[in-house]
Amino acid sequence: MAYRMIQVGTGGFGGAWCQSFLPPNVKEGLIEVVAAVDINPESLKNAQAHLGLRPEQCYTDISRTFDENKADFCAIIVPPAHHESVVDVALAHDMHILSEKPIADTMAASARIAAKVRSAGKKMGVTMSHRFDQDKTTLRNEIRSGRHGALDYLVCRFTCDCRRFGSWGRFRHEIKDALLIEGAVHHLDILADMCGGLCDTIYAQTWNPRWGEFRGDSQALATMAMGNGTRAFYEGAKANAVGFNGWCREYIRAECEGATLITSKRRVERFPYDSSKKWNEQTEGQGQEVPLIQQPKWANTWLIEKFVKWLDGGEPMETNVEDNLQSVALVFAGIESSRTGAPVKVQEFLETAKRQTCLR
Q: How many CB atoms lie within 10 A of CB 118?
């Protein structure tokens, strides 16, 4: 039987949920969208056009939506600053939760949300979609295959030309730390996951160049050291002159003992170590192509299915809210590092946030 769902937020990226991510899961009988809510009536047309909702199933008032529609879970696709208030409504109505990243717009709010969900005995997943994209999944599997020996370090590049106000969605140009909260939340998560261990320390520098039309920082350089000895470096930029590796086309290079592995612009390639060569210099783009893994669903569409299987009694999805606190901690520890100019011990940072939540 399909799980009944309320969608909170149908404009912006919520429109992509209506058009692309939800329909395959509806068609397979995994979910039934029983209602949608958005403060903008025009945005609700997305739910009507792509999910077949009737006008009376579409609301602009969240309290009425939840009061008048019985559902098993809700999906939250609104800006991070509003996540906690929606979580409160969902838990008050005895619902599980699937939310867009990040958990919330602050470390404290993220820890509170996780604590509330735990206390209520409910399940909450976070759609860290980029970790579950086709090229990243292929690269991760190649790293973990054991064919190339131990991983030493990773490098990730994500650069875009979104310097003009509104080019990356108006709200992102108006929030503090836009790049880390809305962009690097994916990339730091990917790097930690591929490294296969919890991050020990992060050192980050973030800034906004004078030509970047952002209220907060739009550029970042960050170094991460993992507890298992691997390392990672991140370059993120939203105000460059041109973009080279934008959304879903990121450059990630994995330096392993027996090979260099690269994904760039959705192509994965390997460059094996050759002990017979003294100087083994190669050209990116001319390596041995690694075939991309093929399956019907990727990213958000796949994560919705994973969430449903969890609700069915399966294993918790990898990005359940408790585990996803690690990803949020990377973001806010990075922000703290940039402000203090010093490395931050990520696990201590996270434990402090959890402890302060318990004391309130």
A: 12
3-state SS assignment for residue 127: strand
Taking a C-beta distance cutoff of 8 angstroms, is the pair 220, 234 a contact?
Answer: yes
* CB 265, CB 111: distance < 8 Å: no
**Mean pLDDT to the nearest integer, 178-187:** 95
CATH architecture of 131-290: 2-Layer Sandwich (3.30)
**To 10 degrees, what angle do helices 346-359 and 321-340 make?**
110
Rounded Cα distance, 317 and 304, in Å: 10
Strand partners, 100: 127
Q: What pLDDT does 359 receive?
A: 57
* Whether pLDDT at 360 is above 90: no
CA distance 215 to 166: 12
Q: Of 306, 303, 356, 340, nearest to 186 (Cα)?
A: 303
When pLDDT is averaged across residues 45-59 and rounded to a whole number, the result is 98
* Residue entry with tokens 């999906």: 75
Beta carbons within 8 Å of 275's beta carbon, 6+ residues apart: none
What homologous superfamily does CATH list for 3-129+299-320? Answer: NAD(P)-binding Rossmann-like Domain (3.40.50.720)
